[in-house]
Amino acid sequence: MTDAPEALRPLAGVRIIEISSFVAVPLAGMTLAQLGAEVIRVDPVGGAADYRRWPVTDDGESIYWAGLNKGKRSVAVDMRSEQGQDLVVRLIAEAGVLITNVAGRQWHSYDTLAAMRPDLIHVEISGRADGGTGVDYTVNAGLGFPLVTGPEGLDVPVNHVLPAWDVACGLYTALAVTTALRHRDATGQGQRVSIPLENVALATAGNLSFLTEVMINGTDRPRIGNSIYGQYGQQFTSADGAAFMIVALTGRHFRDLAEVTGNTKAVAALGESLGADFTDEGRRYRHRDALTGLFTPWFSAHTAEEISAALSGTSILWERYRSFADAAAGPSVTDNPLFTTLDQPRIGSYLAPGLPVAIDGSYPPAVPSPALGDHTAQVLADTLGLEADEVARLTQAGTVA
After folding, report:
1. What is the rounded distance in angstroms from the CA atom of residue 38 to the CA atom of residue 32?
2. Mean pLDDT across the stretch 18-25?
3. Which band of pLDDT confidence, cut at 50, 70 and 90, is reported for residue 3?
4. Please, what's the b/e burial string for 257-274 (b: 16 or more CB within 10 A of its CB; e: otherwise)?
5. Is 235 among the domain residues?
6. What is the pLDDT of residues 347-359, one digit of tens each?
7. Which of 86, 166, 220, 256 is catalytic?
8. pTM surpassing 0.85?
9. What domain range includes position 132?
């Protein structure tokens, strides 16, 4: 990132220490690095719990690690030793910003560190607001989403594969750092920020009305398969077996769907027989099964290519269901300026996304991830002023690696 234009590096000059594992904080650190900050990830010697996390290459190198640590510097320290803890505390005090999901460690708590650096920005992610542990999948299990995910009539929970709360939590963390930096610039004061993963999930569920619906109406969200609650959206299958997701959010979308499938008159007749005004999105949702019965024969009679061509000339929101392999080989990746070719040591060469925010028309590009401890000696020398022989002694003693 050091060669990127200044406009793409709004956080240039900011140094951040990251002590983390898994998704939320690594994503936050990578996002801040993509915005130009110098992010130094500090791990235990041998790596944290996510250093070998799947997916991995045939040689056992973590593709996952490479994905979430792009553009960072890596320092490996024996954080169980007093000498190792002292080094990390000095790094944090010098940087002035810590992001971590390793909660409950007194030696890098806000109170301990703020005594050394009064304007410290300390952002700590925890599992639950009461201090208990939790990860995306356990938090989600207690929130209700697995009981409304999956086909109608199913009586068992269905987990989704996207760690949505980790992702949201990581972005909240990056936002918290940037706002705290602004606050510090204006007042000279640091901030202690706590972000429980569970609260991120609860706030999102509340903001999207999943919880409020129960509180106000006394009804829980039903399980409706691939339909869209409150709107008309449905999966259809072509004559050659391709699956499509069709979404009609507005009156125009719905009129176009009726027209392209040759059902304008049939939809009007159905509305008259049911006493339903299909200009109302709620009515379209309530009678979705009957509407789907009208639209299905058109999809079943046409190939995927014919459907794609027909839908492309309308306002309808649609997409063909694709695998990750299909998406990776498709133009949304191969012809997208978000992606650039990255030569990632130990992993290989591939198209990697940078920051998905265009700044003045350009996307900050992806930068390779480090291997564990790649920058230990350099960081200790440049940041703490340690001489080469002192770093060598620490390495010999196993304090750093």
Report:
1. 8
2. 97
3. low
4. bbebbebeeebeebbeee
5. no
6. 999 999 999 999 9
7. 166
8. yes
9. 6-206+336-396
Instruction: Give the number of domains in the chain.
Output: 2
- Which residues neighbour 83 within 8 Å (Cβ) at sequence distance 6 or greater? 394, 397, 399
Distance CA 127, CA 130 (A): 9
Domain boundary among 290, 320, 350: 320
Task: Place 5 in a pLDDT band, splitting at 50, 70 and 90.
Answer: confident
Phi, then psi, of 222 in degrees rounded to 5: -80, 165
Cβ–Cβ under 8 Å, residues 246 and 301: no
* Max CA distance (Å), the chain: 87
What is the CATH number for 97? Answer: 3.40.50.10540
Residue 390, token pair as written in the block: 């002192």
User: Is 31:171 a contact under the CB 8 Å cutoff?
Assistant: yes
How many residues would you count in the chain?
A: 401
Same domain membership, residue 23 and residue 75: yes
Residue 284 token pair: 């379209």
Give first-to-last CA distance, the chain, whole Å. Answer: 25
* 62 & 186 share domain: yes
Residue 390 counted as domain residue? yes
326 annotated active-site: no
Compute the distance between CA of residue 368 and CA of residue 136 in angstroms, rounded to an integer: 27
Q: Are residues 170 and 316 in the same domain?
A: no
DSSP 17-74: EEE--SSHHHHHHHHHHHTT-EEEEEEETT--TTTTPSSB-TT--BHHHHHH-TT-EE
Distance CA 365, CA 32 (A): 13
Beta bridge partners of 318: 246
Q: Tokens 């990860």: give the residue.
A: 135
Q: How deeply is 222 buried, as exposed, middle or buried, from its count of CB atoms within 10 A (0-12, 13-18, 19+)?
A: exposed
Across the beta sheet with 97-100, the strand order is 73-77, 38-44, 15-19, 97-100, 121-126, 191-196
Tell me, yes or no, whether 382 and 307 share the same domain: no
Asked if 27 and 356 touch (Cβ cutoff 8 Å), the reply is no
Please check whether residue 205 is in contact with residue 143, taking contact to mean a CB–CB distance below 8 angstroms.
yes
